[in-house]
Design a protein that fits this description.
Elements (H helix, E strand, L loop, with lengths): L1 E7 L1 H4 L17 H8 L3 E7 L17 H11 L4 E5 L13 H15 L8 E5 L18 H21 L2 E4 L16 H27 L4 H8 L5 H16 L2 E4 L1 E6 L25 H13 L4 E6 L7 H14 L4 E5 L5 H9 L4 E3 L7 H7 L6 H14 L2 E8 L6 H14 L3 E6 L16 H14 L9 H6 L3 H6 L5 E2 L6 H4 L15 H14 L3 E3 L12
Parallel strand pairs: 1-2, 1-3, 3-4, 4-5, 6-13, 6-14, 7-8, 8-9, 9-10, 10-11, 11-12
Helix pairs in contact: 2-6, 3-4, 4-5, 7-14, 8-15, 9-10, 10-11, 11-13, 14-15
Length: about 550
């Protein structure tokens, strides 16, 4: 049985709006009692008090400082979780406080709370807003017009505190409003709405905790978590904790060489699809490819990613020769290939030539969704066959999906996550769909960045040791997209080693970033960006922890 402390003021006590005699709602009507009925295996300890502040002494009533009451409650209650909702009374004119002052008072209460429970077991609730007429005759003269403005600004102050302290946050003002009877208190409907929101919050938190503990969820639970932006910060904090426990604050740099934008396939989303007559084609020579690797090696890079469309001009033996040359010149390096679907025999030849890793996004696990994204002649089954062959042969194997492709549902993404959990890839590529001109999907909206980051965090918790890139697509979709990817649990970034004169032609989507940057400038930029969020760019091979270097 979990003991949950609900600590607050008259809106936790359950004062009936406009009551002249201080009456309160019965237990089954106030939010604390409602969540007690809705939550299994939870004992709700009510601690509401009319007039309670955070740390400020009421000049008219004693014993209203929340900080003074917390130690005895926390020490004697065997508390597992705390919901704290204070701040309304701190807005009274007698205190003349700013929202920041009230935030400091809240933080003193939080300092006391975390002596007894972990920050991840604290839910900070910013209170409902004071109504516009709260100070008028017949209501509450302890407030004034300035109090209303202060109450409106508490949400932002509290949210920043919760983020900094890695605590949960909920804004009561997003859920309910003060009853017009006194412009200060929740009515029955408000208590019900708030109780439902609290229960939803706690149940979704429990899903994150379950994912952390077990490494998986059932499909229905995954869909619910995917649909829950309220848990993004908590989810990301858990993902980063797992990532740093394995990799520290290191982010692996991979030198990307995009050596051809010819492709035999006609995938509907891709800017280099075979039927795109507006694509300016190029094809690098073997010497140009190995020269890029040489330059990357001088810059300290120890992994090279050779990527192209499925270009029929490059035979398997051609790629094998290129790989052998790179490995002969730089035997301490890893070579990753991302060149599409091939036969098992071809994959085996590429592995025997010295290739270490192979990236092949599965795109979607659902066969019907796969047909929406790809033309006749391509199949999900063959894509999965390729991935199985690659892993069976011994490659460090990568799969992945785009977020926001045509007709993609949360059910689709949940199926993808469960597939990846079962497949256990060494690498997982997750990025937003970005439309490409002159393709059937050019007018579709870009994929949702928040959902993309959410999926990265879930993948990190499902596959703790996976190598997960913060993709260029993320950086294209949003200026700080790659940084946000790292802060969601990713741990790889790929600066582009391709010659500047061809880099702007490898356009899987529009407006790709860094197409004119020299590689040394690009690497310095990425290194600085990572440093700005507390991470270190490292240029070692960065193999999967369970894979020995070849």
């Amino acid at each position: 049985m979990r003991n949950l402390l609900a600590f607050g003021d008259s809106n936790t006590w359950g004062l009936i709006p406009g009551s002249r005699t201080g009456e309160r709602f019965c237990k089954s009507e106030r939010w604390t009692g409602l969540i007690q009925d809705l939550l299994c295996d939870t004992n709700v300890i009510e601690s509401g008090l009319c007039g309670r502040t955070t740390v400020f002494e009421d000049p008219l009533r004693q014993g209203r400082k929340g900080l003074d009451a917390l130690p005895s409650i926390l020490a004697g209650g065997n508390i597992d979780y705390v919901i704290i909702m204070l701040g309304t009374n701190d807005c009274k004119t007698c205190y003349n406080l700013t929202p920041e002052d009230i935030g400091k008072g809240l933080e003193q209460c939080l300092d006391e709370i975390v002596r007894y429970v972990s920050p991840s077991s604290v839910l900070i609730v910013s209170p409902i807003l004071l109504g516009d007429e709260v100070y008028l005759p017949g209501k509450d003269p302890e407030f004034g017009p300035a109090s209303i403005e202060v109450s409106r600004r508490l949400k932002d102050v509290y949210k920043k505190i919760a983020t900094r302290r890695k605590m949960h946050f909920l804004a009561a003002s997003d859920i309910a409003a003060a009853d017009r009877a006194d412009d200060e208190h929740l009515n029955k409907e408000g208590h019900r709405a708030f109780a439902r929101a609290i229960v939803k919050e706690l149940e979704e938190e429990a899903l994150v905790d379950k994912l952390c503990e077990t490494g998986t969820l059932c499909k229905e639970e995954l869909v619910r978590l995917l649909a829950s932006p309220a848990q993004d910060e908590y989810l990301a904090s858990k993902a980063v904790s797992v990532s740093t426990s394995i990799f520290g604050k290191d982010v692996y740099l991979r030198g990307l060489i995009e050596f051809s934008n010819y492709c035999r396939n006609d995938c509907y989303y891709c800017g280099i699809r075979a039927s795109n007559r507006h694509c300016s084609r190029y094809r690098m020579t073997p010497d140009e490819i190995t020269d890029c690797a040489d330059r990357g090696y001088k810059l300290g890079l120890r992994t090279f990613v050779l990527q192209s469309g499925e270009d029929p001009a490059y035979k398997t033996e051609d790629i094998c020769k290129i790989v052998k040359t790179i490995k002969a010149r730089h035997p301490d390096c890893a070579v990753t290939l991302s060149i599409g679907e091939k036969t098992r025999e071809e994959y085996l030849a590429l592995y025997d030539a010295g290739s270490d890793r192979y990236l092949l996004r599965h795109e979607t696990y659902d066969p019907e969704h796969y047909r929406i994204l790809h033309p006749e002649g391509m199949s999900r089954d063959n894509r999965l066959r390729c991935l199985n062959d690659l892993k069976d042969i011994g490659f460090q194997t990568g799969c992945g999906i785009m977020i926001g492709t045509k007709d993609q549902t949360l059910d689709n993404i949940a199926d993808d996550l469960l597939y990846m959990k079962g497949f256990e890839p060494h690498m997982v590529g997750i990025g937003p769909f970005l439309p490409a001109s002159n393709t059937p999907f050019e007018d579709l909206p870009a994929g949702d960045i928040a959902l993309t980051l959410r999926v990265i965090s879930i993948v990190r918790l499902m596959l703790p040791k996976a190598l997960i890139p913060a993709t260029t697509a993320l950086g294209t979709a949003e200026a700080l997209g790659r940084e946000k990817g790292i802060l969601a649990g990713a741990n790889v970034v790929m600066p582009d080693l391709s010659p500047v004169e061809v880099r702007g032609k490898y356009l899987l989507y529009d407006d790709k970033i860094c197409v004119t940057d020299d590689i040394s400038m690009c690497q310095a930029c990425i290194t600085g960006r990572l440093r700005s969020i507390g991470y270190t760019a490292v240029t070692t091979r960065g193999d999967h922890p369970d894979s020995a270097a070849k």
